[in-house]
TrEMBL record:
InterPro entries: GH, Glyco_hydro_1. It comes from Anser brachyrhynchus. Pfam families: Glyco_hydro_1. One of its GO terms (biological process) is fibroblast growth factor receptor signaling pathway. GO terms for molecular function: fibroblast growth factor binding; fibroblast growth factor receptor binding; hydrolase activity, hydrolyzing O-glycosyl compounds. PANTHER family: GLYCOSYL HYDROLASE (PTHR10353), KLOTHO (PTHR10353:SF10). This is Klotho. Gene3D superfamilies: Glycosidases. Belongs to the glycosyl hydrolase 1 family.
Length: 455
């Protein structure tokens, strides 16, 4: 029976670098597309930014590394996922290197090592160096995959001896569709579907280049694993008709399958996309298909509010109904992609930005998702080997700004010292780890006898 192993769970996900680090112009960091986007005079309607500064300071994690590490120590987690800021290491996106950025991440990795915590490192979480956008047009350019490979090589050389789990990028759907298609997110290019699909094409090529780079040159000595964090919604038919069920499959194809099928199945896009999009969808050559196929050592899944209920365009639902059933999504992934090992690299919900330290809603959803994961393992045979909560502390929540919170620790964004204060969810998660309740039979027994709200 597949199950969580104690050494692979108890994970915690930090927000992306832009959401928490701050220090946006500190010690040589270059501008990212998010820096530029949040400093525009007119904030997009409904974006929810608090003031004009976006993530300029955010949770100020860049200047509070030991504060954050103390929060991790208090929770007792085994792993910690964070992202590197490309423009902090390479201010223009390419050489020369910024030594201060390199030293910062060395300190962070050193602190995690001292605490006995495993890092899970994302190379790219949406904060493309602005110079690459200005010079080449960002991910719309076929030049970007090679530049991304160069950046990844720098990271593997400098940090690879301390990192076993790498993620090339987070949620390429959002980058391609809303960065270059709708323009809702940075770099804010309203290029329509054609440009969105082109950007996705280059993101897939970039990911494959980095996987092969690691596989050929770094895996023999560093012995790590590389994947890509893919996000998805779950969707159910309005009625149990063959047509509606097929539309649900199409909805998942157009969001998750867009990236997962090329990587996990055959190097090409889903047939439902090919038949519906005609000339809009770029073509992979036969050599490119072979190059992309199999470029993930595990299935890294991100499941939460950002895509499912905030950034999924309504027409991507194909007139069907969204659902927050993580268990059903896990089972679908297992069936669709030949039962891969799954690492849930982001999961949780959100509470209102006015919430302080009583986050009962957050705990409710966290319990729900953990139970669904354990049921998927025990009853459905899904091969889940790790689980990650989003996130350590409150941060800048992308298009929602500071109007929502997703951290276990509360941050007063108006304060100078940005002291972390534990929420109710800290005690819940801490006790869960202490009691080793990740063992499937423990929690499943509890839910059968007491119900989810009483655990």
């Amino acid at each position: 029976m597949a199950r969580f192993h104690p050494s692979d769970v108890g994970c915690l996900l930090q927000n992306a670098a832009y959401q928490t680090e701050g220090g946006w112009r500190q010690e040589g960091k270059g501008a990212s597309v998010w820096d530029t986007f949040t400093h525009r005079p007119a904030t997009p309607p409904g974006a929810g930014f608090m003031g004009p500064t976006g993530g300029d300071v955010a949770s100020d994690s860049y200047n509070n590394l030991f504060r954050d590490a103390e929060g991790l120590r208090r929770l007792g987690v085994s792993h910690y996922r964070f992202s590197l800021a490309w423009a902090r290491l390479l201010p223009n996106g390419t050489a020369p290197l910024n030594p201060a950025g390199l030293a910062h991440y060395d300190r962070l990795l050193g602190r995690l090592r001292a605490l006995g915590m495993e890092p899970v490192v994302t190379l790219y979480h949406w904060d493309l160096p602005q110079h690459l956008q200005d010079t080449f047009g960002g991910w719309a350019s076929p030049v970007l995959p090679e530049l991304f490979r160069d950046y990844a090589e720098l990271c593997f050389r400098h940090f690879g001896g301390q990192v076993r789990y790498w993620l090339t990028m987070d949620n390429p759907y959002v980058v391609a569709w809303h960065g270059y298609g709708t323009g809702r997110l940075p770099p804010g290019v309203r290029g329509g579907p054609c440009l969105g699909y082109r950007a996705a094409h280059h993101l897939l090529q970039a990911h494959a280049k980095v996987w092969h780079l690691y596989n050929d040159h770094f895996r023999p000595t560093q012995r790590g694993k590389v994947s890509i964090a893919l996000s998805s919604h779950w969707i159910k038919p309005q009625s149990m008709t063959e047509k509606n069920i097929k539309e649900c499959q199409k909805s998942l194809d157009f969001v998750l399958g867009w990236f997962a099928k090329p990587i996990f199945i055959d190097g090409d896009y889903p047939e439902s996309m090919r038949s519906n999009l005609s000339s809009l969808l770029p073509e992979f050559s036969e050599d490119e298909k072979k190059y992309i196929k199999g470029t993930a050592d595990f299935f890294a899944l991100s499941f939460g509010a950002t895509l499912s209920f905030q950034l999924l365009d309504s027409h991507m639902k194909f007139q069907q109904l969204e659902s927050i059933s993580l268990r059903q999504l896990l089972y679908w992934i297992s069936c669709e992609y030949n039962n891969p090992p799954v690492f849930i690299v982001e999961n949780s919900w959100f509470v209102s930005g006015s919430t302080k330290r009583d986050d009962a809603k957050y705990i409710y959803y966290l319990k729900k998702f953990i139970m669904e994961t354990l049921k998927a393992i025990r009853y459905d045979g899904v091969n889940v080997f790790g689980y990650t909560v989003w996130s350590l502390l409150d941060g800048f929540e992308w298009h929602r700004g500071y109007s929502i919170r997703r951290g276990l620790f509360y941050v007063d964004f108006q304060s100078h010292d940005k002291k972390l204060m534990p929420k109710s969810s800290v005690l819940f998660y801490q006790k869960l780890i202490e009691k080793n309740a990740w063992e499937a039979h423990v929690l499943l027994s509890a839910v059968c006898h007491t119900g989810i709200s009483d655990i």
